[in-house]
UniProtKB/TrEMBL annotation:
Residues 430-589 form the Helicase ATP-binding domain. Residues 712-874 form the Helicase C-terminal domain. CDD domains: DEXQc_arch_SWI2_SNF2 (cd18012), SF2_C_SNF (cd18793). This is DEAD/DEAH box helicase. SUPFAM superfamilies: P-loop containing nucleoside triphosphate hydrolases (SSF52540).
Length: 883
């Protein structure tokens, strides 16, 4: 089978689950059902999703497909339970109840796009799926029952008869029973419910119609002596007062009635098990003697009826009674001896555990995932609830509501004004440090995770000293150096990185430095990192440790630290195993052992409420803000522009130095027009070297390791890919468009578009239409001049200037291909600048000139550089920094 395409689910305008398939789950399967459904989805997505609900659950369903399937099956079930659906047909109304809506939100799996699934999204999808049914049934010539039978023979439309059980104030007969049926009066647009006795008048003389109406009752009577007696005596046709024992019989037989096609209306306390007997374990009433997940928690079990506490003696007294319904403090309670004995046994087991076992804070939190396993209780259907005591409840509330956390002033030595949400992140990091918890700062790309972290580290340096180790991709070293020097110039730092790995043993950790910066690759090789007890261990782009089995991940997790922090814009995506690995680093043991977590995730296929438990557990340790959040958008400019600093590879450095020598010799003997030509051609060659050695040398390999820009491009585009966003990449060199596109196709696992001066006008229009269309096209590579005008590419919300024109007007014109009328998202502009080279120096000059006189360079291009004298030019061209 052709590999299924990514991003097939785009629903409700901007709100979508952008990855419906987890490709590695269904890749290489030749199942015709998958092919058939995929083709149906391409033709009509809502129709395909609706008809998905008629299928049995399939092994190829990914978590997001399973979630959509769950919504479709719920709608179909509710449709099949509409007793008047034959009357209403295309005018039928099926609403989602508040409880059902809340449950669907809690069951959202951890998949790409989950942040878009809110009340509006679910209700919009529900309405669209319902419209599919209305459209199809309007032109269907048969009955609704036949329509359902043709799609799934196991789905039966309910009959028109309803059974009702309500409480009654009569002491001897505390319940009332009534049977009704749905009918459509003449001149009425809607069906109504009326007592079943009225059917005797309506169908007087037409026994065939009467028997058809009560056929479901006859079917139920075959299995229920209670209904059989009522039918034979004729009492079924009149409202009845019944005893508690009769009501209990009715309640236990509801499944029989519903299988026969009878809808039952019963009190909420039975339907929702409000008054069932359960065990509750309260944890963390008192503040522990130490902080962190190893802190020992107090815990106390109690017995509950609903939310009312009872004593073990009272529960034992219930066991002496006969089975049935009894009233306890005005509430009806089911006396089921097997269940009550199991509850009492579990309560006593927890009491014994209290004296035999110490419960850590980590254990207490893990209880919310699998309390039965942790408390060694075998009865899976036994209800055991975990409640937080006053101390733990306060801590969790503060962490879940970071706006309420104690405020901490930034240091005078920190030179930046944090945005409101960034201040919140800074306060949250300090709070997590005080509590001894690992923390994941998971803001969207572009929201300023780095500046928040620098503010936090500067505060810790001033007040608590210690030492910090920052591990990051090599492509981000330049960015961090720039940010530290700009925002915390007093912070002493050391770069633990050498391109010559053979001499890595010479890299000594300097104790006079507070912050030490190294790369993931070096962390594997530098054994000295494991020999030091770090105060803080920070991982930038922490998705680098998502695979727990790699040498790199194991090396990182072996580094000891008092507090561990992860920075990532994509903390949770399709694979829950990635989430386990992240938390195994941050707060080891919180999600259990790999085996325990695997067992838990397997259970999610049967019980999707586990997603809510997992979300509740990890929420205190993750601070995630999205660019789509209205409170964040209000605090952001519409267009976020940032320099992405890259470094030169060894090969680039050698070529750069070689070119410097050649230019130095030629400048001394060249004048006039020839000199101007030499300067401009030299600038072009430096740009080519900074892009990739193979562009300068005219080769075709374009290996990633030979170019700092290619490494930076991967770092940015991997996050864009994981979020299923779209990006435009501009380059002034037509010959670079194909190598960049080929490189990006490896990252995005599919090809995007290339557009340059040689692209025919008709083809350009087709490319633009497809790029802005519903099907996911991840990227477009454009030559700057060809892509600078006449295009509307608002599907993208990222722009990367791979190399610089050094003409702000031209660059802004290109950026505005996305940032224009019709754009609904914040646009992020990444401008690549190679550190220590002419690119960094000219960027600084342009920034300063723009501050002085606005767009002064808009018409001159790079011509102004030819006015520099030889000495100034060589200073501009020279390699700077540590290169």
């Amino acid at each position: 089978m052709t590999r299924l395409k990514a991003s097939k689910i785009h629903l409700l305008n901007a709100y979508f689950l952008s990855e419906a398939f987890v490709m590695d789950e269904i890749e290489n399967q030749s199942d015709e059902n998958i092919k058939k459904w995929t083709e149906a989805f391409d033709a009509d997505k809502y129709g395909a999703l609706f008809h998905l609900g008629f299928l049995e659950k399939e092994s190829w369903f990914s978590p997001s497909i399973e979630y959509l399937y769950h919504i479709a099956t719920l709608l179909i079930k509710k449709l099949s339970q509409q007793s008047a659906i034959e009357f209403n047909r295309e005018t039928v109304q099926v609403e989602l109840g508040a409880d059902e809506l809340q449950k669907l939100k809690e069951e959202i799996p951890f998949v790409i796009g989950m942040e878009y699934v809110d009340d509006q999204w679910i209700q919009g999808l529900w309405a669209s799926l319902l419209d599919v049914f209305k459209t199809e049934i309007k032109v269907y010539e048969g009955t609704v029952a036949r329509y359902f039978a043709e799609h799934n023979a196991h789905i039966n439309i309910v009959g028109r008869v309803f059974f009702h059980l309500v409480e009654n104030k009569d002491g001897e007969y505390p319940f009332a029973f009534m049977a009704t049926y749905s009918t459509k009066p003449v001149k009425s647009k809607r069906a109504v419910h009326t007592p079943l006795k009225n059917a005797l008048k309506e169908f007087d003389g037409d026994e065939k119609k009467l028997f058809s109406l009560i056929s479901t009752v006859i079917k139920a009577a075959e299995k229920s002596a209670f209904i059989s007696d009522l039918l034979e005596s004729g009492e079924l046709f009149s409202p009845l007062k019944i005893t508690g024992d009769e009501a209990y019989t009715f309640l236990k037989e509801i499944e029989i009635y519903e299988e026969a096609g009878i809808m039952c209306r019963v009190p909420d306390w039975w339907k929702k098990k409000y008054n069932s007997v359960s065990v509750s374990v309260a944890v963390g009433a008192k503040e522990p003697s130490k902080v962190g997940l190893d802190a020992i928690m107090d815990f106390e079990p109690s017995l509950l009826i609903g939310d009312e506490q009872i004593t073990p003696q009272e529960l034992s007294a219930f066991l002496e009674m006969g089975e049935g319904l009894v009233q306890y403090k005005g509430k009806w309670v089911e006396i089921n001896k097997n269940k009550l004995e199991a509850v009492l046994d579990a309560f006593n087991k927890v009491k014994r555990l209290k004296t035999d076992k110490l419960l850590s804070l980590s254990d207490a939190m893990r209880m919310e995932l699998n309390v039965h396993e942790l408390l060694e209780i075998q009865e899976d259907d036994l209800e055991i609830t975990i409640s937080n005591g006053q101390w733990l409840r306060t801590v969790k509330e503060n962490l879940k509501n970071p706006d309420k956390i104690e405020k901490v002033d930034t240091e005078p030595s920190f030179h930046a004004n944090l945005r409101a949400y960034q201040e919140t992140g800074y306060h949250w990091l300090n709070q997590m440090s005080r509590l001894g918890f690992g923390a994941c700062l998971a803001d969207d790309m572009g929201l300023g995770k780095t500046v928040q972290m620098i503010a936090f580290l500067e505060h810790q340096r001033v007040h608590n000293a210690g030492s910090a180790l920052l591990v990051l991709p090599a492509s981000l070293i330049g960015n961090w150096k720039k940010e530290i020097e700009k925002f915390a110039p007093d912070m002493p730092y050391q770069i633990l990185h050498k391109s010559d790995l053979k001499n890595s043993e010479n890299l000594q950790i300097r104790e006079d430095k507070f912050l030490h910066i190294t790369t993931y690759g070096m962390a594997v090789r530098l054994e000295a990192l494991k020999d030091k007890q770090w105060t803080y261990l920070i991982l930038d782009e922490a998705q680098a440790i998502k695979n727990p089995g790699t040498k790199q991940t194991k090396a990182i997790k072996a580094i000891p630290a008092k507090m561990k922090i992860a920075m990532t814009g994509t903390p949770i995506e399709n694979k829950l195993g990635d989430l386990w690995s992240l938390f195994d680093f941050l707060n080891q043991g919180l999600l259990g052992t790999p085996k325990e977590f695997t067992n838990f995730t397997k259970g999610l296929a049967e019980d999707m409420t586990g997603y809510a438990k997992l979300r509740k557990m990890i929420q205190p340790f993750i601070l995630r803000r999205l660019k789509t959040d209205k409170s964040i958008i209000a605090d952001l400019p519409d267009k976020l522009e940032m320099n992405a600093y890259t470094t030169l590879s060894k090969k680039q450095i050698a070529l750069y130095k070689q070119l410097l020598e050649q230019i130095s010799k030629k400048l001394d003997v060249t004048e006039g027009i020839e000199r101007k030509g030499l300067v401009l051609s030299s600038i072009m060659k430096f740009k080519q070297i900074c892009n990739h050695p193979d562009q300068y040398l005219g080769l075709e390999a374009y290996k990633e390791a030979h170019s700092g820009k290619f490494e930076q491009l991967r770092a940015i585009c991997e996050t864009i890919h994981e979020k299923r966003e779209r990006v435009l990449i501009f380059t002034q060199f037509r010959e670079m468009t194909a190598p960049i596109s080929e490189f990006l196709s490896e990252i995005f696992l599919k090809e995007g578009f290339v557009l340059h001066g040689g692209t025919p006008v008709k083809k350009r229009n087709e490319i633009v239409e497809q790029f802005n269309g519903e099907h996911y096209v991840p990227y477009m590579v454009l030559s700057l001049k060809a892509g600078g005008v006449g295009l509307n590419l608002t599907a993208a919300n990222h722009v990367i200037h791979f190399d610089r024109w050094w003409n702000p007007a031209v660059e802004n014109q290109a950026t505005d291909r996305t940032f224009r009328i019709g754009q609904t998202k914040n646009v992020m502009v990444h401008k690549f600048v190679t550190k220590g080279t002419i690119e960094e120096k000219i960027d600084a000059i342009i920034e300063e000139k723009q501050k002085l006189s606005g767009d002064i360079l808009s018409s001159t291009g790079e011509q102004w550089l030819t006015e520099y004298n030889n000495e100034e030019l060589m200073q501009l061209f020279a390699l700077g920094g540590d290169l």
